[in-house]
């Protein structure tokens, strides 16, 4: 008994000396360490407060929130924000040109996709089988809901899809198709056959040195020329393939760097055990590569979400284009500021939570068991 | 079948199969394309490049009018893209430096401002920011009620009007070249080991700077149109301004948006670079009694620059590609010029080939040049120990 307590006491006493500083001490150290520092702090705080006050005044205190008669007359003589434009036009921003009566479907589909994305962030789903079942299910439900034509739902062609739902769809489809492509490209580039690895390398580097806009544009315009008619499908699928290719080229390099950071001994040991190429790749290399490459992968996923907005250029009606349309009528043309802020907020919510999640994963890995 | 047990034979067979499939796909695509082109009665080839466009362009560095050829229009687009790209990189760098210095300063409020800036602007797509600035700039008051600064700079919905010198555009290019040449020689003097031991290095640099300045002034004095004022100041005549330089809102919107967005990314890269410099290096410099400025300028900064440069180069190349948004605001960059040409001439395949070749050449040149710079200043051997 005594021996146990003897072992325990030093630990407890050790902690006593390291009591963390109080809040006041930490604040003083951070903001008022020296007189010059305090002056800068005060000036900076004054500037921030000034900005915050004006922002609050404009966005909340003097703002008009709704327009009872549906016109922009309520916003004629105000000094604040005219949020009435959002109240009046939010449907077009979120759903685009989707038929009015069927917009619940677009809403539901969007929710399904977002839930799928959120669920795949949970570590429990990080098994190839679970992840693929989740994504296939989410995707099929989404597609059936949006496309309709089944279970008595009216068919809505992809050309009429729009708004936030289209953005989310494009993102999910691009990543879903792009990820296997990325894995294939990374493996092909690492291949020992010079011809295969050179060709894949040239493809990856070529795609990476072109702007995404040109890839999307090419996909939309070139595929109709070079593909036989039975292979073409809808324009949106051609653009999604282009988008997936772009994502895959970047992601392939990330995976390849993940593979290269695995100690050589791992693959050699696997070879020595007599595992086949596919066993080595699927069981040894790729799982470790994905773990190594997780932070840049999340980063790439964040960037990819922002880049979906480039689809406007090809003439799709995503949330950005529908935002333009929302204030584009003569009546609301003065309210561009409010509409852009609303659209920016929607993007911000998605992108910021994705990047926070990435930061959380990085912390988790640092403390990680491996 | 015994042959296939051999790894080399098998690998060769795979590669041949790969090549055959690739050739079949390419052949099929070409065949299909030529069949469709023939069905539409289109002629392929690059002859259309010499036809006149009949198209007007808002902003161009190279003179352009609607009677000129497609080829000329493509040059205009390339020049505009390069101009906007370089302008954006420079502006984003300035913004990035300022924000990075906020982020690494010892002051808490400055840190918070830097973080707030980065989290706000990095999480909203560039194209949205470009559209926002374009809308904001075109909603400025009309030219008659333009905001003015010292009666020389005017800001209106038609763009920004700033004074300029009464010289032709090509002379500006000459001045810029002279400046670039002078600066690179100066940089060479101060960087290269060959000049380390030259005695009057300071005087040499001084003379070089003087020569550069003299060359610039000389070119401007020579190029000035006789009988005109040195400065051309914009003046309101009727509904528009005359004289000076007009910076159209399309260009400003794109430049502002990329400066703000790219600046947030560059700031993070620079901050990471400063933080990657080993604590021991800085502490050792302090222990040697160097002043805090010397610690910064002789130890911290040079090491940080070398640490960030590869990442920064990627960032520059990426920013250059990201400026290809001219089409959403109506700025005639390379991509939007190609898009217009496709609509006008219908020569889709040829123009897309030009588009891809153009971007491949531009981006690879940019990264080649920057990588050479990186190689030239990288520390050799074991010097970069943390």
From TrEMBL, chain A:
Membrane topology reported for the UniProt record: Multi-pass membrane protein
Superkingdom of the organism of origin: Bacteria
Stretches of the chain forming a coiled coil according to its record: none
Predominant cellular place of this UniProt entry's protein: membrane
One GO cellular component, as annotated: ATP-binding cassette (ABC) transporter complex
Subcellular location: Cell inner membrane; Cell membrane
Domain ABC transmembrane type-1, chain residue ranges per copy: 164-358
UniProt cross-references to SUPFAM superfamilies, sorted A to Z: MetI-like
Keyword Nucleotide-binding attached: no
TM region(s), chain numbering: 36-56, 106-126, 133-156, 168-188, 209-230, 236-252, 308-327, 339-359
Gene3D superfamilies cross-referenced by the UniProt entry: MetI-like
GO biological process: amino acid transport
Family statement: Belongs to the binding-protein-dependent transport system permease family. HisMQ subfamily.
NCBIfam families, alphabetized: HEQRo_perm_3TM
UniProt protein name: Amino acid ABC transporter permease
Organism placement in taxonomy: Bacteria, Pseudomonadati, Pseudomonadota, Alphaproteobacteria, Hyphomicrobiales
């Amino acid at each position: 008994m005594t021996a146990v307590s003897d072992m325990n006491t030093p630990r407890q006493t050790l902690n006593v000396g390291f009591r963390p500083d109080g809040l006041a001490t930490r604040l003083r150290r951070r903001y008022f360490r020296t007189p010059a520092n305090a002056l800068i702090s005060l000036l900076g705080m004054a500037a921030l407060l000034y900005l915050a006050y004006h922002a609050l005044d404009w966005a909340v205190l003097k703002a008009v929130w709704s327009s009872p008669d549906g016109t922009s007359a309520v916003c004629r003589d105000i000094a604040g924000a005219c949020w009435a434009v959002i109240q009046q036009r939010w449907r077009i921003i979120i759903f685009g040109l989707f038929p009015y009566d069927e917009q619940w479907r677009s809403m539901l589909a969007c929710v399904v996709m977002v839930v799928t994305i959120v669920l795949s962030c949970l570590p429990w789903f990080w098994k190839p089988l679970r992840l693929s079942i989740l994504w296939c299910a989410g995707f099929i439900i989404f597609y059936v809901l949006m496309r309709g034509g089944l279970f008595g739902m009216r068919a809505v062609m992809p050309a009429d899809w729009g708004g936030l739902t289209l953005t989310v769809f494009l993102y999910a489809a691009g990543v879903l198709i792009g990820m296997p492509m990325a894995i294939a490209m990374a493996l092909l580039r690492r291949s020992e056959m010079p011809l295969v690895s050179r060709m894949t390398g040239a493809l990856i580097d070529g795609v990476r040195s072109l702007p995404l806009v040109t890839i999307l544009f090419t996909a939309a315009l070139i595929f109709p020329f070079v593909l036989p008619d039975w292979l073409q499908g809808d324009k949106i699928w051609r653009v999604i393939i282009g988008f997936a290719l772009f994502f895959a080229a970047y992601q392939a390099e990330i995976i390849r760097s993940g593979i290269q950071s695995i100690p050589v001994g791992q693959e050699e040991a696997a070879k020595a055990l007599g595992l086949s190429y596919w066993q080595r790749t699927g069981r040894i290399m790729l799982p470790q590569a994905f773990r190594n490459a997780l932070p840049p992968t999340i980063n790439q996923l964040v960037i990819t979400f922002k880049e979906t907005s480039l689809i406007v250029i090809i003439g799709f009606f995503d949330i950005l284009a529908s935002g333009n349309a929302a204030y584009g009528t003569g009546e609301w043309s003065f309210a561009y500021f409010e509409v852009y802020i609303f659209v920016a907020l929607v993007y911000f919510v998605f992108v910021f939570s994705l990047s926070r999640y990435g930061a959380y994963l990085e912390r988790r890995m640092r403390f990680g068991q491996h | 079948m015994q042959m296939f047990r051999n790894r080399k034979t098998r690998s060769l067979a795979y590669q041949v199969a790969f090549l055959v499939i690739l050739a079949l796909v390419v052949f099929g695509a070409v065949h299909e394309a030529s069949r469709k082109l023939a069905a539409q009665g289109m002629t392929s080839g690059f002859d259309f490049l010499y036809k006149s466009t009949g198209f007007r362009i808002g902003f161009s560095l190279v003179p352009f009018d609607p009677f000129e050829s497609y080829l000329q229009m493509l040059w205009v687009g390339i020049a505009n893209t390069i101009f906007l790209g370089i302008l954006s990189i420079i502006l984003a760098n300035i913004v990035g430096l300022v924000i990075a210095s906020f982020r690494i300063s010892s002051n808490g409020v400055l840190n918070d401002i830097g973080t707030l800036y980065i989290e706000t602007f990095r999480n909203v797509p560039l194209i949205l920011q470009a559209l926002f600035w374009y809308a904001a700039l075109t909603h400025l008051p009309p030219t008659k009620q333009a905001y003015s600064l010292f009666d020389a700079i005017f800001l209106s919905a038609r763009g920004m009007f700033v004074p300029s010198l009464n010289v032709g555009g090509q002379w500006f290019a000459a001045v810029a070249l002279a400046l670039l040449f002078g600066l690179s020689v100066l940089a060479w003097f101060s960087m290269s080991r060959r000049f380390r031991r030259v005695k009057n290095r300071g005087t040499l640099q001084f003379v070089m700077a003087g020569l550069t300045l003299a060359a610039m002034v000389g070119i401007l004095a020579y190029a000035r149109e006789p009988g005109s004022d040195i400065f051309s100041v914009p003046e309101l005549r009727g509904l528009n301004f005359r004289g000076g330089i007009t910076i159209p809102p399309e260009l400003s919107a794109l430049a502002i948006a990329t400066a703000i967005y790219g600046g947030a990314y560059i700031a993070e890269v620079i901050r990471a670079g400063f933080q990657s410099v080993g604590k021991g290096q800085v502490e050792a410099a302090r222990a040697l009694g160097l002043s805090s400025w010397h610690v910064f300028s002789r130890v911290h900064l040079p090491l940080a620059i070398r640490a960030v440069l590869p990442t920064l180069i990627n960032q520059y190349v990426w920013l250059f590609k990201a400026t290809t948004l001219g089409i959403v605001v109506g700025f005639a960059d390379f991509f939007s010029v190609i898009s217009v040409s496709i609509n006008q001439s219908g020569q889709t395949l040829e123009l897309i080939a030009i588009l891809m070749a153009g971007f491949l050449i531009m981006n690879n040149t940019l990264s080649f040049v920057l990588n050479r710079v990186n190689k030239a200043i990288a520390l050799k051997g074991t010097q970069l120990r943390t």
